Structures are given as structure tokens and as C-alpha cells.
């Protein structure tokens, strides 16, 4: 119980920090801060989505960038069709992601371990190539959005701060939803299926159905991240689905600590701030980022996941 | 039409052979060590860059290619000793993260050393011509050489794995790592050998395509993911499966791109067919993978688990 209290306090602290950030930015006179922070919140949503299946379901999806991309493209496609409402964009993104997750998840979940990692990666790459060859939407070059999504029929999100707070509100809502999911009976079954699928089956649960449902929920959440990120950058291209993005999402989840939701938000913050900071030092920041990553993994004795998970692996 | 078909078939085979060289090392590492290596693609890329540099240094593509082999073997050895060795007993997630970090390091490192602009290397004079196949159709000699070299490598692998002592250990290791180790085989030495050898094969593939493709920092990623598809189709750990899968993927991908729009034109308007063909063709190999997985979750030649 006390552990739950600390997590609730940590969440309160982290989210109020985010809520106060625009005021700090105004005081410092640094409006770029809000732009970066919006990006962080967007990725935090995607990392949260990934943590739900990676941390609680033990499914290492290496293709979550596809869902971010699906969300981003739903903004581009609907905007061009004249539908600018944020709610419609979110719904379209979620619908697309649910469909993609249902089909690819049903196939991927027939396999385990290395196969699962490679297959989710391959399907994400398929989505990547689909949008690369979609010349109506700029193909490889992508499309620039003429305007951000509208809220209640008005261009409220054009203000960077409003976009920031809307993204934050969505993140908090999804975080609470994710916490509720993991504490529900459904979440318990999911964790049980991670620890011992055979035993779960023996007591009358079909792990596949629970895992697929979780996979679909996670994909839908990641597409929400895509909608918000597309609004933040004002530009949509297949780069949203690049496998590097999938990799970075996994890095974020692991950096923040696997299987505790809030960690995913913290991980996204750490990873993106690290990128920004290293980017200031050198244009070859990826080299340093990669080095840090390798060193962290090698230095953790029981494995990165063992660092944070209390249970020992079998 | 027939000659175009044959031409594209040969291109497909050539692409498949290339994928095989990359997938062969990767599938052994996956199957025997149960190790996810995302960094295999960058070794292929480094092989291509080294071939460019060595060719410029020596003035001969042949010598450049020959020098690339020990160089990539050495890179494989160093990587194994420094990084991979510590990861074999770790969860897959750790392996994914560490090798993903390596991909970032090497990709950026290559851009620091060779720059971000694409490079190319001149084809050797003797192989730059083309020979007639049937009728009017001619085919570049160099691509035939690539096919030949790949087939020779496949045959060599088949002989090594099926008919030598080290091959026997390798097959035994794929079946039961613990048992082989208990019988007194130094399994870590075996891993090092397999790893370095796989790196050399990837480097060989990179060096061979350097004259026909442009050498750029993104070249490793595309083939890496296609090599994954190949391995998933063929079954993890099976070199024979990798061979079959690689040819299948190479041919389906190449043929799909050239004949997809033509076939769609039979049932659609030309403009729509062209558009649909362009969109569908790159997705074809993934659909193929999904179909095979739906029927056989462990791949064509995979062992039942």
C-alpha cells in the first residue's frame, strides 16, 4: 500500500511539474521549451502504450512506431479531406491502429521470443513502405500540414501552450486509464500470462485473447501519440514510422523502468532531454547516445529489465 | 515479355543470393546462441564502405574485396569479445537495446569517417561487360558473378555444416547448447567463430554489391529487416531455410515490383493499377511472411518447439 502511495505521489509530482512548465518557460523567456516539452509528452504517450504490453504483458514489440505513424497520417489524410476536428483525427487514428494491431497482432502472437521481436519489426517496416510509396501524400517526403487540428470547430491548438496542455491532459487521462487496466482483472491475467502462460491456461484463461486485446489497446494509445506529434511538428512523413523510432520507444521504456507506467513517462523525458543536450554538444549525438545505451546495458548485471523488476526471471 | 521475365528472375535471384549471405550468419547467431543481433546490417554496410576504401587504396576491386574479408572478420571478433559475449545469457530485451546502440554508433561513425554522401566504386574492367543470354537479351557479367559467388558460398556452407567436425558441433549446438558444453566442447569459442564468420559473410555481401549499388549509411537497415523476414520465413537457425527464404524473398520482391502493376492492369484501369502496384509491391514480402507464419509459425524449415 505504501508503495502505491509513493507512486501516486511521484505521478502527482511529475505531472504537476509538467503543468507548471509553461510558466517557467515564460519566466525564462524561452518559448522553445514548450515546443520540446510537447514533443516529450507525445513520446511519453507512445512509451506509456508500449510499457503496457512490454512491461505487463512481456511482449517486446519492436514496431510501435507504426502506430505513431498511423496516428500522424490520420491527421494528414483527414485534414486534406477537409475534416479538421481533433476528435475526428483521434478517432480515425485509433480506428486505423486497432485494425492494424488486430491483424498483425493476431499473426505475431502466434510466435514467441525472438520471432515476436522480428515480426513486429517487419510489420512496422511494411507500414513504413506503404506510406513511402503513397505518392498522393508526398511519399518519402511527406506532407506539410496547413494547420493544426481544430478543437470545437475553432483553431485553439494554434497556440503552442494550448496544444501543450491538451497533450498533457490526454497523457494524464491515458496514464490513469493504463493504471486502471493494470489493476483490473484483465491486467492480472495479462501479467499472469507473462509469468506462466501454461498455468494461466490450466486455470481457464486463454492468454492469446488477453494478449491480443492488450496489443490492440496499446496500438490505439500509440496512435494518439502520433496525432499529437503530427500537430506539434506540423509535418507528417514516413519518418514517424522509421524503425529507429520503434527502437527509441523501447529505450525510453527501459530507461524509465519497465512495467511501472510512470517510468515510461520519465524515460521519454530523460531520453529526449538527453538527445537535445547531446545535440547541443555535437551533430554526431547519435554516436554518444548509442555509447551510453551500450554501456548502460553492459553495466547492469542482471539485465536492464532485472534492474527494475523485483521478480527474478526463471 | 519472356526475356523481361527471365531478366527480372535473374535480378531476383541475385538479390536473393545477397540476402542469403546476410541471413546465413544472422540465422546461425539467432538459432545457436538465441541472440537478437540488430547490428548485423551495419556490418554489411561497413563491408561495402571498406571495399570502397580498399579499392581506392589498392587500385583494384579484387584486392579491395579480398582485404574486406579479414577486416570484417576482425570487426566481428572485436564486437563479439567486447559486447556480444556479455549478452548471451541476458534477456532478449537487453540484446535488442545493446545492439540497437551499436547500430547508432556504427551508423554515425561511418558518417564521420566517410561522410553522409553516397559513395560508389568502379566495376572491374573485366567484369563490366554483358553477355547474351537468349535472343536480344543481355545480362551484366558482374551480376552473374555475384550469383555464382553466392551459390559457391552456399555450397561451401552446406559442406562445412554437413560434413566437417566444426559443422557437427554447430548442428549439435543448435539442438542443445548445454549438452554440447557438457560433452567438453568450448561453446564460447564456437560462438566466437560463428559470430566472426557471420560478420565476414555480411561484409562479403556488402563488398560485392558496392559496385552495383550506391554505398550509403542507410543501406544496412533495409537489408537487415529483409534478412529478418528471410529468417522468419526459413525458420530460425536453419541455413537451408535461410537459402530458400532468401531466394523466395528476393524473387517475390523483384518480380512484384516489375510485374505487379502489369498484372493489376488486367483487372484495373491502367492509372489505378500503376498506383496500386507501386503501393502493394513493397508490401508483398511482408504479406508472404504473414501467410507462411499463419500456416507454419516456426517457418518453412524451423524445428517444432
UniProtKB/TrEMBL annotation, chain A:
<dbReference type="Pfam" id="PF02653">
    <property type="entry name" value="BPD_transp_2"/>
</dbReference>
<keyword id="KW-0472">Membrane</keyword>
<feature type="transmembrane region" description="Helical">
    <location>
        <begin position="89"/>
        <end position="107"/>
    </location>
</feature>
<protein>
    <submittedName>
        <fullName>Branched-chain amino acid ABC transporter permease</fullName>
    </submittedName>
</protein>
<dbReference type="InterPro" id="IPR001851">
    <property type="entry name" value="ABC_transp_permease"/>
</dbReference>
<feature type="transmembrane region" description="Helical">
    <location>
        <begin position="162"/>
        <end position="181"/>
    </location>
</feature>
<dbReference type="GO" id="GO:0005886">
    <property type="term" value="C:plasma membrane"/>
</dbReference>
<feature type="transmembrane region" description="Helical">
    <location>
        <begin position="66"/>
        <end position="83"/>
    </location>
</feature>
<keyword id="KW-1003">Cell membrane</keyword>
<keyword id="KW-0812">Transmembrane</keyword>
<dbReference type="GO" id="GO:0015658">
    <property type="term" value="F:branched-chain amino acid transmembrane transporter activity"/>
</dbReference>
<feature type="transmembrane region" description="Helical">
    <location>
        <begin position="249"/>
        <end position="274"/>
    </location>
</feature>
<feature type="transmembrane region" description="Helical">
    <location>
        <begin position="35"/>
        <end position="54"/>
    </location>
</feature>
<dbReference type="InterPro" id="IPR043428">
    <property type="entry name" value="LivM-like"/>
</dbReference>
<feature type="transmembrane region" description="Helical">
    <location>
        <begin position="286"/>
        <end position="308"/>
    </location>
</feature>
<keyword id="KW-1133">Transmembrane helix</keyword>
<feature type="transmembrane region" description="Helical">
    <location>
        <begin position="114"/>
        <end position="137"/>
    </location>
</feature>
<feature type="transmembrane region" description="Helical">
    <location>
        <begin position="208"/>
        <end position="229"/>
    </location>
</feature>
TrEMBL record, chain B:
<keyword id="KW-0472">Membrane</keyword>
<dbReference type="Pfam" id="PF02653">
    <property type="entry name" value="BPD_transp_2"/>
</dbReference>
<feature type="transmembrane region" description="Helical">
    <location>
        <begin position="96"/>
        <end position="121"/>
    </location>
</feature>
<keyword id="KW-0029">Amino-acid transport</keyword>
<dbReference type="GO" id="GO:0022857">
    <property type="term" value="F:transmembrane transporter activity"/>
</dbReference>
<dbReference type="GO" id="GO:0005886">
    <property type="term" value="C:plasma membrane"/>
</dbReference>
<feature type="transmembrane region" description="Helical">
    <location>
        <begin position="190"/>
        <end position="213"/>
    </location>
</feature>
<feature type="transmembrane region" description="Helical">
    <location>
        <begin position="38"/>
        <end position="57"/>
    </location>
</feature>
<keyword id="KW-1003">Cell membrane</keyword>
<feature type="transmembrane region" description="Helical">
    <location>
        <begin position="12"/>
        <end position="31"/>
    </location>
</feature>
<keyword id="KW-1133">Transmembrane helix</keyword>
<feature type="transmembrane region" description="Helical">
    <location>
        <begin position="63"/>
        <end position="84"/>
    </location>
</feature>
<dbReference type="InterPro" id="IPR001851">
    <property type="entry name" value="ABC_transp_permease"/>
</dbReference>
<feature type="transmembrane region" description="Helical">
    <location>
        <begin position="225"/>
        <end position="255"/>
    </location>
</feature>
<feature type="transmembrane region" description="Helical">
    <location>
        <begin position="276"/>
        <end position="295"/>
    </location>
</feature>
<dbReference type="GO" id="GO:0006865">
    <property type="term" value="P:amino acid transport"/>
</dbReference>
<protein>
    <submittedName>
        <fullName>Branched-chain amino acid ABC transporter permease</fullName>
    </submittedName>
</protein>
<keyword id="KW-0812">Transmembrane</keyword>
<dbReference type="InterPro" id="IPR052157">
    <property type="entry name" value="BCAA_transport_permease"/>
</dbReference>
<comment type="similarity">
    <text>Belongs to the binding-protein-dependent transport system permease family. LivHM subfamily.</text>
</comment>
<keyword id="KW-0813">Transport</keyword>
<feature type="transmembrane region" description="Helical">
    <location>
        <begin position="141"/>
        <end position="161"/>
    </location>
</feature>
Amino acid at each position: 500500500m505504501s508503495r502505491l502511495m509513493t507512486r501516486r505521489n511521484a505521478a502527482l509530482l511529475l505531472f504537476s511539474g509538467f503543468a507548471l512548465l509553461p510558466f517557467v518557460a515564460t519566466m525564462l523567456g524561452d518559448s522553445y521549451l514548450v515546443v520540446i516539452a510537447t514533443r516529450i509528452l507525445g513520446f511519453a504517450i507512445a512509451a506509456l502504450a508500449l510499457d503496457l504490453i512490454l512491461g505487463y504483458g512481456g511482449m517486446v514489440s519492436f514496431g510501435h512506431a507504426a502506430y505513431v505513424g498511423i496516428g500522424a497520417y490520420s491527421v494528414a489524410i483527414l485534414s486534406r479531406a477537409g475534416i479538421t476536428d481533433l476528435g475526428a483525427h483521434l478517432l480515425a487514428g485509433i480506428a486505423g491502429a486497432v485494425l492494424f494491431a488486430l491483424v498483425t497482432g493476431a499473426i505475431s502472437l502466434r510466435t514467441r521470443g525472438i520471432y515476436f521481436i522480428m515480426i513486429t519489426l517487419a510489420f512496422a517496416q511494411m507500414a513504413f513502405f506503404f506510406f513511402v510509396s503513397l505518392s498522393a501524400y508526398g511519399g518519402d517526403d511527406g506532407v506539410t500540414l496547413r494547420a493544426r487540428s481544430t478543437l470545437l470547430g475553432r483553431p485553439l491548438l494554434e497556440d503552442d501552450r494550448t496544444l501543450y496542455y491538451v497533450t498533457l491532459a490526454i497523457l494524464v487521462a491515458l496514464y490513469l486509464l493504463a493504471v486502471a487496466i493494470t489493476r483490473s482483472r484483465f491486467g492480472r491475467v495479462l501479467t499472469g500470462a507473462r509469468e506462466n502462460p501454461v498455468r494461466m491456461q490450466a486455470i481457464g484463461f486463454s492468454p492469446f485473447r488477453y494478449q491480443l486485446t492488450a496489443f490492440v489497446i496499446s496500438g490505439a494509445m500509440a496512435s494518439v501519440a502520433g496525432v499529437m506529434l503530427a500537430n506539434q511538428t506540423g509535418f507528417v512523413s514516413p519518418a514517424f514510422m522509421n524503425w529507429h523510432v520503434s527502437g527509441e520507444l523501447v529505450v525510453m521504456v527501459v530507461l524509465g523502468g519497465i512495467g511501472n507506467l510512470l517510468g515510461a513517462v520519465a524515460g521519454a523525458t530523460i531520453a529526449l532531454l538527453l538527445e537535445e543536450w547531446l545535440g547541443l554538444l555535437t551533430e554526431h549525438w547519435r554516436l554518444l547516445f548509442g555509447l551510453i545505451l551500450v554501456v548502460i546495458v553492459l553495466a547492469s548485471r542482471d539485465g536492464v529489465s532485472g534492474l527494475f523488476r523485483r521478480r527474478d526471471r526463471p | 515479355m519472356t526475356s523481361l521475365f527471365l531478366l527480372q528472375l535473374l535480378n531476383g535471384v541475385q538479390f536473393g543470393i545477397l540476402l542469403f549471405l546476410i541471413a546465413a550468419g544472422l540465422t546461425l547467431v539467432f538459432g545457436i546462441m538465441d541472440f537478437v543481433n540488430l547490428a548485423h546490417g551495419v556490418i554489411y554496410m561497413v563491408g561495402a564502405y571498406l571495399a570502397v576504401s580498399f579499392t581506392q587504396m589498392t587500385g583494384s576491386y579484387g584486392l579491395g574485396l579480398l582485404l574486406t574479408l579479414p577486416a570484417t572478420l576482425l570487426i566481428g571478433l572485436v564486437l563479439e569479445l567486447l559486447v556480444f559475449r556479455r549478452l548471451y545469457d541476458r534477456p532478449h530485451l537487453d540484446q535488442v537495446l545493446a545492439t540497437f546502440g551499436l547500430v547508432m554508433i556504427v551508423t554515425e561513425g561511418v558518417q564521420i569517417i566517410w561522410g553522409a554522401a553516397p559513395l560508389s566504386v568502379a566495376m572491374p574492367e573485366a567484369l563490366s561487360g554483358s553477355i547474351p543470354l537468349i535472343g536480344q537479351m543481355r545480362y551484366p557479367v558482374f551480376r552473374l558473378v555475384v550469383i555464382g559467388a553466392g551459390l559457391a558460398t552456399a555450397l561451401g556452407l552446406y559442406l562445412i555444416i554437413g560434413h566437417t567436425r566444426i559443422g557437427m558441433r554447430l548442428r549439435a549446438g543448435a539442438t542443445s547448447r548445454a549438452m554440447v558444453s557438457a560433452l567438453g566442447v568450448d561453446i564460447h569459442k564456437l560462438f566466437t567463430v560463428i559470430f566472426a564468420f557471420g560478420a565476414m559473410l555480411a561484409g562479403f555481401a556488402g563488398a560485392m554489391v558496392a559496385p552495383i549499388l550506391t554505398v550509403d549509411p542507410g543501406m544496412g537497415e533495409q537489408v537487415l529487416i529483409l534478412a529478418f523476414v528471410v529468417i522468419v520465413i526459413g525458420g530460425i537457425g536453419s541455413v537451408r531455410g535461410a537459402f530458400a527464404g532468401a531466394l523466395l524473398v528476393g524473387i517475390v520482391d523483384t518480380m512484384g515490383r516489375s510485374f505487379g502493376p502489369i498484372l493489376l492492369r488486367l483487372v484495373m484501369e491502367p492509372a489505378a493499377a500503376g498506383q496500386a502496384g507501386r503501393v502493394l509491391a513493397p508490401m508483398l514480402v511482408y504479406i508472404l511472411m504473414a501467410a507462411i507464419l499463419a500456416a507454419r509459425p516456426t517457418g518453412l524449415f524451423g524445428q517444432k518447439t
